[in-house]
Amino acid sequence: MPDIYDRSKALATRMLAPRSKGGKGLELVLRRETLGEYDPDAPPAPSELVVNGSGFREEYDNKYIDGTLIVRGDVKLLVSPVQLTGADMPIPLSNDRIKFDGTTYTVIAVGPWNYAGLAVGFELQVRK
Length: 128
What we know:
Layout: H1 4-16, E1 26-35, E2 46-59, E3 75-79, E4 97-100, E5 103-115, E6 118-127
Antiparallel strand pairs: 1-2, 1-4, 2-3, 3-6, 4-5, 5-6
């Protein structure tokens, strides 16, 4: 029998699924560029991780916009814990790029929903 953590992950997955699949979210594309190991004889070749997922965008209330940590124009993205393929979503990192609803954002901060070691979703602060 699934426990409360598995049910929480399943609920977040259903709610943040794209509207085309019955959820409240939209599709997104997470991109992460990484450099290979340092080799003095050859320049490092960048590699890119591309993940298709889903999420929900929410505007910050004015009371949270302080001009330093959160600036006007920042938005909050709630990201599903699973990719569109059904595999687990990798944890987003700062400086990852996310294309959501036709706009490309840069991840500023990541707040995982982590219950007893199980990623139930991610709350991201993103900036255009």
